Hints:
Blueprint: E1 9-14, H1 19-28, E2 34-39, H2 46-49, E3 53-54, H3 66-76, E4 83-86, H4 89-97, E5 105-106, H5 111-118, H6 120-127, E6 136-137, E7 148-152, E8 162-164, H7 167-177, E9 182-186, E10 192-199, E11 205-217, E12 220-226, H8 230-242, E13 247-255, E14 261-267, H9 275-278, H10 284-292, E15 308-310, E16 325-328, E17 335-336, E18 339-340, H11 342-353, E19 357-362, H12 368-374, E20 383-386, E21 402-405, H13 409-419, E22 422-424, H14 429-432
Parallel strand pairs: 1-2, 1-4, 2-3, 4-5, 16-19, 16-21, 19-20, 21-22
Antiparallel strand pairs: 6-9, 7-8, 7-9, 10-11, 10-13, 11-12, 12-15, 13-14, 17-18
Helix pairs in contact: 4-5, 5-6
Amino acid sequence: MNNMLATRKRVLVYPCGTEIALEIYRSVSKSTYFELIGGSSDYDHGRFVYKNHIDNLPFITDNSPIDDIKEFNNILKDYNIDYIYPAMDGVLYKFAQYKEIFDSVVIAPDLETATITRSKTKTYELFKGLLNTPRLFSPVEKDLPYPLFIKPASSQGSQGAVLLQNDNDLRCSLEQANGKEMVLMEYLPGEEYTIDCFTNTDGKLIYVGGRGRKRIKNGISVNAVAENDPVFIELAGIINSHLNQIGGWFFQVKKNIDGKYSLLEVASRIAGASAFARAHSVNLPLMTLYLYSGQIIDSIIYNEYGVELDRALYNCYKLDIDYTYVYVDYDDTLVINNIINTELIMFLFQCINKGKILLLITKYAGDIHADLKKRRLDGIFDEIISLNSQDNKVCNIKHKDAIFIDDSYGERANVKNNTGIYVFDTHMIECLLQN
């Protein structure tokens, strides 16, 4: 990459609580060239992840009126936003529709591309005859060849998709759709794949990487392994030549009854599980931001090793406490089973970044200074308090604006009861960690 950015650019990610937005955060948050700001219209998980956050933005969907877009832009004027990174399909489509209204650069393709990729019906119409697309049916047809699949014409992944076995299933699905446009299509029984792609400003495909969607939960791929069928490159080339994608995007295919790949959808954004590409050194969100910043990207670095990605819910916390001093035990706390507690080390360095005072309080029987040096932990603590086995730790807690971390229930109870400060055991460290 050449002509690196001279100043740090501010990037609004909206809505910041989606899986897409969380992957953008993980991909860009440590960049020295971009500063991420989360944006929300309601109380979502993004508030726990994005350090900088804008609340109460107008709720943007496919059908949002232009007045909501104008209000959205007016709010952003106070935050000096350079780029807006849409993190939901409907938002991307709507922002692409009104790019000229925004004072910030919108990370989205042209409106025609955004319109096609937002609609599965339009996607199938465009690529019919160019590659395998599912056979579509009308709900009023007689003698429908069940099983069939029905899903919203505009949705993310497999959200809202239902396998139909008979006319009664179809009737129930249409009633639940409540007038929403649905796509009734042949059932594809084979394996499903996602292919992450990256297209530069010259329209050249720089990256094509396939992965098998081995386990799916709530429409989201939560387990993936590499699947690099050469056909994926061919399919990506056809799609890329008929759409004006720019930056990171993806498409999904599923094998039909004959074992041939059939197109499920194309999206003009990164996938939430594009972390799989990032594990191979292909950081699609960051590369996309560089591209929109005017950088020339005509090649990638790719680490070719085996990767299996598995995803699950994880915890984030905001504790309503304030403290200056951190008292930490050594045996079975900082070092457990002769292994350094790396989660606690993360917290200690977080404290160092925030200017907290770290005090090691220990009854270690040997030479604590030598042991710290051996483990390369010397220099972390502002003070080391060495006690005899019969000493009470509570007598050496000198500060009220402090917390105490110790594996011993007895020590924690004694400190809590006699000083009133907050106490934590080794299984509570995650509560103290911040992104």
